[in-house]
Amino acid sequence: MDDRATIWSVAAELARATVPAALATISRRRGSLPMASDAKMLVTVEGRRWGTVGGGCVEADVIEQALAAVDQGEPASVSHTLNADLAGDIGLSCGGTAEFFLEPVLTTDEAVSLYGRVAHAIEARVPTVVYTATTWPNGPRKLALMNGDVVAVGERLEVESIEVEADNVSFLDEESGVFVEPIPRMPRVVIFGAGHVGKEIAQLARSVGFYVVAIDDRAEFANVERLPWANEVIAEDFRSVLDRLQFDEDDYVLATTRGHSFDAYIIERTAASPARYVGMLGSKRKKAVIMKALAEAGVPQDALDRVVTPIGVPIGADTPAEIAVSVVAEIVRERRM
Predict the structure, then answer these.
(1) Which of 23, 45, 147, 151 is most solvent-facing, going by the fewest CB within 10 Å?
(2) Tens-of-pLDDT digits for all 337 residues of the chain?
């Protein structure tokens, strides 16, 4: 399960069991800070935690403040500044200001439903926005919108006038008194070829937050038992799969099959697609041969020019696991740029 989905799913479990807990979510950050732009953490009063807001002394303080919000039964906003001196003292070459929105995990049936539905939406690649009132004078108010589907806690929030930022980063809308948390759908990596390298790529890509589709025309390679971490495993002829697959701007296509002809066909079908990244495993010689053949077959040169091959950052990778590290590092870099 995706880390974000895990946090929401566990929140639902804790809420159902009425375990006191809190959520801490980044609401704004400035400068160079050791945390993701979508950093989120779930903590319980017993000391269990899921996710991270950067670790170190900042995280320790945020945990304490989040648990204070549980005691008070109210959300809170806090700010932490990591200046150059403090960063140096704790061994970090960074500095800046991070603001967090803290809220108690609610234990009503409505809240259990909302947390669970958000977790499911993340796993199903459904874009979601969660809105939370920053003050609760008449009780908690939360709202989750998932492609038109609505789940609410308490009195419904009026959020129509709130514009979600294009970069999908959480923010505090001070005018309306609402914390806005956009949750874009997981980027998808489609791996054609589930051999030794494809298998390792699938596992690592899943662990860093990609929705993984593993495809092979051999059922002994493409099966759930062998690829338990993949979101989808397809044992089918590559041509028929490509006939029905549609690619979007958050897709990453990898041709890692056992044969040049398979890889060439996959590149021919996907090079001009809207996919953000199209890459092929192989040598420079393989690239030259296949690209020449595809150009002669009429594939537009601008489409071929965008194909990454050989794939992977140059780390001298040799084993399937090392190659997977290099490939996933490259698609993570592309994702974050």
Answers:
(1) 147
(2) 778 999 999 999 999 999 999 999 999 877 666 677 889 999 999 999 999 998 777 889 999 999 999 999 999 999 988 765 444 444 444 567 889 999 999 999 999 999 999 999 999 999 999 999 999 999 999 999 998 899 999 999 999 999 988 788 899 999 999 999 999 999 999 999 999 999 999 999 999 999 999 999 999 999 999 999 999 999 999 999 999 999 999 999 999 999 999 999 999 999 999 999 999 999 889 999 999 999 999 999 999 999 999 999 999 999 999 999 999 999 999 998 8
Domain final residue, candidates 129, 161, 183: 183
- Are residues 120 and 263 located together in one domain of the fold? no
Task: Name the token pair of 165.
Answer: 């930022």
Query: Domain residues for 36?
Result: 3-183
SS3 224: coil
Is the whole-model pTM more than 0.90? no
Last residue of some domain: 164, 183, 202?
A: 183
